[in-house]
Design goal:
two-stranded antiparallel sheet; 6 helices; 2 strands
């Protein structure tokens, strides 16, 4: 049956068994068949040759991955190693910080008692054992005494965060050159922590 525009409806003339009818499409049918270029342009297609539906699209060559130089690889490795070392150090510090006692329970440990030998009139002749007097508050000391103590023990006390990196480096170099312990690099903060904990 045809309409006014010349379109034809398909008519299947099936005689006998309908299962013998072959309705499969060929590759040319799926790709649109051999359509001339002029008709393809008229229908809005492009001039590129028609590709069969089963044919895979051609692959573009992949851009070559640029390899790093040995120096670049070394710098990258050092950065990764430094990052993991920082994470490990932060973990160790966090672990030890969690094990510390509460700050309100910190106290200077008591000294063992000493024996004072007195004369009959009460004057002190000698002390036996660890000598130590009463605890003296900082405000009772003369102003130059704490400054002198800080200058002798930790002259950069007001410039570091508890660990003097410059002092530790200096002591490390001095100990390596003398092949033994020649200097210490501990700060007043570290000495306090050592005495308290």
């Amino acid at each position: 049956m045809a309409d006014g525009r010349g379109r034809r409806e398909p008519v299947f003339d099936v005689r006998g068994d309908a299962s013998t009818l072959d309705l499969r499409l060929s590759r040319e049918d799926r790709a649109g068949g051999d359509m001339p270029k002029a008709k393809r342009r008229a229908r809005g297609g492009d001039d590129r040759p028609a590709r069969n539906a089963g044919t895979p699209e051609p692959r573009r060559p992949k851009a070559r991955k640029r390899r790093r130089s040995p120096t670049g690889r070394l710098v990258y490795g050092m950065l990764v190693l430094g990052l993991w070392a920082s994470i490990g150090l932060a973990g160790v510090i966090a672990y030890h910080a969690a094990q510390l006692p509460p700050i309100d329970q910190l106290a200077v440990p008591k000294r063992p008692p000493n024996i004072a030998i007195l004369a009959s009139d009460g004057t002190l002749l000698a002390n036996r054992g660890e000598t130590g007097g009463r605890t003296v508050a900082l405000k009772e000391l003369p102003p130059h005494l704490p400054k002198a103590f800080v200058a002798i023990e930790d002259r950069r006390f007001y410039d570091h965060f508890g660990i003097d990196v410059v002092g530790v480096s200096r002591a490390l170099v001095r100990n390596l050159t003398h092949r033994g312990v020649a200097q210490g690099g501990s700060t007043l903060t570290q000495q306090l922590a050592k005495n308290l904990f």
